[in-house]
Amino acid sequence: MTDYKSLFTGRSDAPQAPASHLTPPKYRLLLVDDEPGIVNALRRVFRQENYEIVTANSGQDGLARLAEGPVQLVISDFMMPGMNGAQFLREVKQRSPDTIRIMLTGHANTDAVMGAINEGAVYKFILKPWNDDDLRVTVALALEQFDLITRNRALKTENAQKAKEISALSKLAATHRSRLGIMLHKKNLLSSAQLQELTLLQERRSEPMIALLLEKDWVEERKIRKLLTSDLLIEEVQLPEFAIDPVLTEIIPRSFCSRQLVVPLKLQGKHLMIAMADPLDEGLVDEVRFTAGLDLQIVTADVAAIRKKIEEVYGSGSDVDFKELETLIASPDPYEGIEIVIEDDDGARLEDLLRETEAPPAIRLANAIIIEAIRLGASDIHIQPRTKSVVVRYRIDGVLIDKIQIPHQQHQSLVSRLKIMSELDISERRHPQDGRITVKTPMRMVDLRISTLPTINGEKVVMRILDRNSAVHSLANLGFSPVDLPRVTDMVARPQGIILATGPTGSGKTTTLYSLLQHDATPDKNYVTIEDPVEYYLDMAGQVLVREKIGLTFPSVLRALLRQDPDVILLGEIRDFETAEVAFHAALTGHLVYSTLHTNSAVATIARLFDLGLKPYVVASALEGIIAQRLVRQVCPKCREAVAADPALRRRLGGDYAGIQQTFRGRGCTDCHGTGYKGRVALYEVLTMDDELRDCIGSGASVLEIRRKVRGKGLRGIGQHGLEKVQAGVTTLDEILRVLGPQAGESS
Ligand SMILES: [Zn+2]
Predict the structure, then answer these.
(1) pLDDT-based confidence at 445, cuts 50/70/90?
(2) Which of 28, 117, 258, 332 lies at a C-alpha separation of 20 to 30 Å from 167?
(3) In angstroms, what is the span from residue 574 Cα to ligand 1's centroid?
(4) Considering Cα of 619, then 625, then 628, then 629, what sign does the dihedral take?
(5) 399: CA distance to ligand 1 center in Å?
(6) Residue 665 C-alpha to ligand 1 middle, in angstroms?
(7) Segment 207-242, tens digit of pLDDT
(8) Would you say residue 683 has pLDDT above 90?
(9) Residue 642 CA, ligand 1 centroid: distance in Å
């Protein structure tokens, strides 16, 4: 059946949207297909949405619909008589470049479709038969993108306009001649020739007279300040004493301050106190008074002090600022976007999820933050509100770095967006929450673990990035010392028992365990992992995600799994007695168990197991070994150079480090983003059990006795492994100090 009416009006008799939609549709969608059945099926997909649907049965017809009124999104078939889908979408692009273009196609015609994609005629293609939910999500996200592009364009124009005004203002101000030169001339500190030269220079370079004067070095700055205070009674202030309200930075832009050498200090009612390097520049004073619309109280300070204060108040210029980020996120390539992978179990909330996403800039911002983090290889993203702005920090190779400043007004919508993505409650801002989400980027698929924490400045968000594609190192590549490697290999070869990796959060424990698990792994064994979150994906293992909220706790999952006859179990973490008890029980009943604990050293781990409530004989018989570890940053191999060891660092590290003469450092290059470090290596302490040690632990010896026994056996500590790595030029003394702390007075 052909809907003739729709051929002429683009509309059908069927109601476009349920009556519950009280607001008029915001988006007009054009569906083009020569088969009426497909058009109707597509229309059904969007029956819940508040879209105005227009249909057409050919490319020509579609163009006619487009001419009738703006269309935000078009979905077109490829194979159509007359104009095919690629040709049609190319036409659409030409006539209405902002319209989002989606092609629906069968598996055939790949080349034609790819051609259209490559030339930008197609935003996305969807294979027939489509999945209704996927299509709905795709369209909703695409429409957000449409809004975003439009808004960004407006924002860009606005920014450009502002920047123009400010730069015009700075130029204007600089053309007003300061009385400073004349005053210095009257005091016989400048000759007439010098004054004339200064005036000419100022006209040519449009820079403040004070800056030129100091550049010429004709009069000492100290002398100028003295004259200003004694003769003209202008107050000189000590800038470090002023705590500056961030709101002032919005009154006077940074570029103006830097250029004119002024800094706003205090605002009381209509009175602004401002420090000026040249308070005799009356033109400048007038301009500031005029732009700020405030009465000014002028004080003076050194040029250097003013520059320093500007840095402090407005932040250092090295960060990516918001404007740069705007350009970053305004890039028109839709393939830079990320897709949210919606997992099946919570399908019911899908529509809520889409309906709540009403702030598109936040979406693009969230995406840009995540993509940038992945590009830089960050492991964590912190979104931290501070008093003057919100800072986005990335943890790269274990070190947190401030990367992006975003304005406060973007904060709440950004946090809400991240919460929606991870299905958290957006209305709940006073209690911590945590959730997870899988995102697909053009680069890779990553799992994000997100947690929120209310702080006095607003909600702080921390995201942990878990790369689904990250490879597990082989045991030999983990970086164990030649002495430890065979001991670890032996430990892993045991058929049963428990092996623990210990260290603080982010010390690479799980990475180590996965390598151990994969070493000598054979298909005839049953491997399972129980984690929260799953950090690596292993085809050969059954992997279970712990979800405490729904009662899937470590011990409950472990108990259930033990009934499934596993051989090797990787248990994410032991943090309570119940988990410890089940894990050790499993280790005593024929399973090889790997797990982690948050302790600092091998012996401290044994003490911790006792504290948790395990019996000494259980620990003694089940435990096979403990690997305590830390991660240190690795010197960038591209820019590595030898330097003499810093005596102060040597002293603080003490012990074995005292004798070190030469160390290595990275000069900083493009490869390491100027940090001098690239990647990380682990420092290990490996404790393996023997009969003597088992007797000692099992007989209820004190931790002190155990420590003595272990030392007697020549356990090589983490510090010792660190020393080897420093000597080999792999890491630096600074890194050892950062990660292990001062070691002086401790024997290794
Ligand atoms: Zn480098």
Answers:
(1) confident
(2) 332
(3) 38
(4) negative
(5) 16
(6) 9
(7) 788 888 888 888 899 999 998 888 888 888 888 888
(8) yes
(9) 14
